Amino acid sequence: MLTLIAQAAGPLCAAAVARAMVVYARRAGADPQLSPWLEGRNHLHPALHRVQDAVAANPAHDWSVQSMADIACTSPRHLGRLFREHAGTAPLDYLHRLRIALAREMLGNSQLDIEHVAQRAGFGSGRQLRRVWHKFDARPPSHARTDTKTAALQSLAPSIGAISSHCLSGIPARAAPTR
């Protein structure tokens, strides 16, 4: 079903539907083992879940620790404590992980340049995207595009091999020319 949604409305829409259904979309070979959309969500703190839901619903929004704290009905300092205690990260690191995941999806599924990807993911510029990116990945953002294409080709390789051997099995081999 998610494949049909992705084909009809695009991969970002399919990911949004998957998150709403509490099912993460299938991973490609280059995708991380643990989804950043689900990371740090295995707690029962309702105020923190409200913040995480709001940030996950719109990671490109101009979030500040104060605006997140307002959602949790707490102070920015206490929100930081809650995030570290229950999610194992700081509020801005959580936000950056989601924005980097969004940017990685856009780089892999579009031809947008880095400036447009940065803007749509909520970063102020391509430079800020690269700076934050290097906190979580040693390779540059351009590798996300290459990794996605490589993973897609690798996942297709067994199918192509099976299809070509199946197609070629019905074709008789040519006899060697005789002299």
UniProtKB/TrEMBL annotation:
Signal peptide: none annotated. One of its GO terms (molecular function) is DNA-binding transcription factor activity. PROSITE patterns: HTH_ARAC_FAMILY_2. Residues 49-147 form the HTH araC/xylS-type domain. SUPFAM superfamilies: Homeodomain-like. Keywords: DNA-binding, Transcription, Transcription regulation. The keyword DNA-binding applies. InterPro entries: AraC_XylS_family_regulators, Homeodomain-like_sf, HTH_AraC. PANTHER family: HTH-TYPE TRANSCRIPTIONAL ACTIVATOR RHAS, HTH-TYPE TRANSCRIPTIONAL ACTIVATOR RHAS-RELATED. This is HTH-type transcriptional regulator CdhR. It comes from Pandoraea terrae.
